[in-house]
Predict the 3D structure of the following.
Amino acid sequence: SMWLPLTVPQPEATDAAFGAAKEITPETDLPTAELARGELEAAPLLAAVLADKGVLSSRGECRRLIKGGGVYVNNERVSDPEKKLTPGDVDKYGQIIVRLGKKNYHRIKIV
């Protein structure tokens, strides 16, 4: 029959979990890099943090992705290739969620 029992996981459930409506909590399983609060307070370049933490291979790659509209911080598209991270980018869970493209999520945990 067309109707599946509710216990069967639906394939779209995973994507829905990362939709804008659903927040990403510390329990959400994401690749995670740590950034010291002192470093964050020095307002590091997003491109530098992503390169230094191995999220992207280089600052240049990050800048290219930003120019192409493919980098988001906390679900907001980054338009400035020289964007600096600040304490204002940290959510209530003490993390900054970076998204590359449509589905590539990374957590920067402030420690």
DSSP finds four helices and five strands in the chain. Confidence is low (pLDDT under 50) at residues 10-17. The first helix runs from residue 12 to 17.
